[in-house]
Amino acid sequence: MNLLTSIHNIDVQAFYWFMARKHRVAMTRLSRIVSRTADGPLYLVIAGIFIWQGQSQWAWVLAFGFTVERVLYFILKKGFKRNRPADILDGYTSVIRPSDQFSFPSGHTSGAFFMAFCLSEWFPGMQPALYLWATQVGCSRIFLGVHFPTDTMMGAVLGSSCALLAFEVLA
């Protein structure tokens, strides 16, 4: 058994663990709301607020970093072509309809961790709340049944890495 198969098997077990939670119905309802906060339009609003407040350099950091993140995200999605849980687990149907075909990495999680990193740099007092929100976005994607745990872990790494790059280049 190769390494990727082992990782996949552990991932499937972890996914089923999430799905077997006692309060899954309540978690699913909350997950819909949390997931929507990471759909993307909020990020444009935040960048617009920075521009309006005379912080255009912050908006440029967001624009550059998010552009790099999206490019890498699409390369990884198309390169790995990992099917979503509903496509490979017998008898499983996700709670929501995913926005695209493949699951690795999680774009919602990547975007959330990107924003959490950036906003934490500018507003350090908000760091715990921002990373809690980003983590909840990742968990929400699992509870909604559209991602495996490693999809969200890679999303967190991707988003954080792109934010770090953006700060190194522009800040």
UniProtKB/TrEMBL annotation:
Q: Name one GO molecular function term.
A: undecaprenyl-diphosphatase activity
Report the residue ranges that make up the Phosphatidic acid phosphatase type 2/haloperoxidase domain in this protein.
61-167
Lipid bilayer topology: Multi-pass membrane protein
Annotated keywords: Cell membrane, Hydrolase, Membrane, Transmembrane, Transmembrane helix
Q: Which residues cross the membrane?
A: 33-52, 58-76
- Alphabetical list of CDD domains matching this protein: PAP2_like (cd01610)
Q: Which Pfam families match?
A: PAP2
Q: Give the protein name, as stated in the record.
A: undecaprenyl-diphosphate phosphatase
Name where it's found: Cell membrane
| PANTHER family assigned to the protein according to its UniProt record, in alphabetical order | DECAPRENYLPHOSPHORYL-5-PHOSPHORIBOSE PHOSPHATASE RV3807C-RELATED, SPHINGOSINE-1-PHOSPHATE PHOSPHOHYDROLASE
Q: What is its EC number?
A: 3.6.1.27
